[in-house]
């Protein structure tokens, strides 16, 4: 996927300036920067969710997203939380649940699972979709340090296994480093990628 962004504005105010990013299968990048700089906005543009910008985005890769909140279907069991949104078969869903450390939890409803398990379910769902690139917006925020570390290494294992690329939005450079992601740092007004 390739983004050649000239400008992104909200209500006439330019938030993002000229930015070029290209990410392919197997490549990992971390978008870093302080709160409010425009990281989530840039991720939404990369994801193709926001097309209201100057510039162009090319690429036909399959994408999957994970967010800070797990965003599960409360009235469906864990397995259906994977098969319904992704369209994958039960076997694939069971395999990814196992890889995410959720074997035996298939029939549980989200409310019967801990927040950590719900987040792993959201991660398993993203991989079950068979993405070329995983897009993640602060997926480890508000987790305790130990759980966050475990989730980061689980993400790394699942990326290794699937061969998917990663675009990770985070304010924590350590998360990107642990995933061996190339650091792209946003700074300035409007924000651009800082040259290292
Ligand atoms: N839909 C919107 N309408 C107007 N302004 C917006 C909208 N979405 C974001 N903004 C503004 O754009 C700027 C960038 O927001 P964004 O959420 O992308 O930042 P961020 O770097 O992801 O922040 P954080 O780390 O706090 O999540 C902020 O000033 C925000 O107020």
Automatic annotation (TrEMBL):
InterPro entries: AAA+_ATPase (IPR003593), ABC_transporter-like_ATP-bd (IPR003439), ABC_transporter-like_CS (IPR017871), ABC_transporter_ATP-bind (IPR050166), P-loop_NTPase (IPR027417). PROSITE patterns: ABC_TRANSPORTER_1 (PS00211), ABC_TRANSPORTER_2 (PS50893). Residues 1-194 form the ABC transporter domain. It comes from the Bacteria. Pfam families: ABC_tran. Keywords: ATP-binding, Nucleotide-binding, Transport. GO terms for molecular function: ATP binding. Belongs to the ABC transporter superfamily. This is ATP-binding cassette domain-containing protein.
């Amino acid at each position: 996927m390739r983004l050649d962004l000239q400008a992104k504005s909200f209500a006439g105010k330019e938030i993002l300036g000229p930015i070029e990013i290209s990410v392919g299968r197997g490549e990992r990048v971390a978008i870093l920067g302080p709160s409010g700089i425009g990281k989530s906005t840039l991720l939404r543009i990369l994801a193709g969710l926001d097309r209201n910008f100057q510039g162009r985005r090319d690429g036909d890769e399959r994408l999957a997203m994970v967010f800070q909140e797990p965003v599960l279907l409360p009235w469906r069991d864990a397995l259906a939380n994977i098969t319904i949104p992704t369209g994958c078969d039960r076997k694939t869903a069971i395999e990814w649940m196992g890889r995410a450390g959720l074997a035996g939890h298939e029939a549980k409803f989200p409310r019967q699972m801990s927040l950590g398990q719900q987040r792993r379910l959201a991660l398993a769902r993203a991989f079950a979709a068979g993405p070329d690139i995983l897009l993640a917006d602060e997926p480890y925020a508000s987790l305790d340090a130990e759980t966050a570390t475990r989730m980061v290494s689980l993400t790394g294992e699942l990326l290794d296994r699937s061969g998917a690329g990663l675009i990770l939005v985070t304010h924590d450079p350590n998360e990107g480093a642990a995933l061996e992601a190339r650091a792209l740092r946003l700074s300035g007004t409007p924000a651009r990628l800082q040259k290292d």
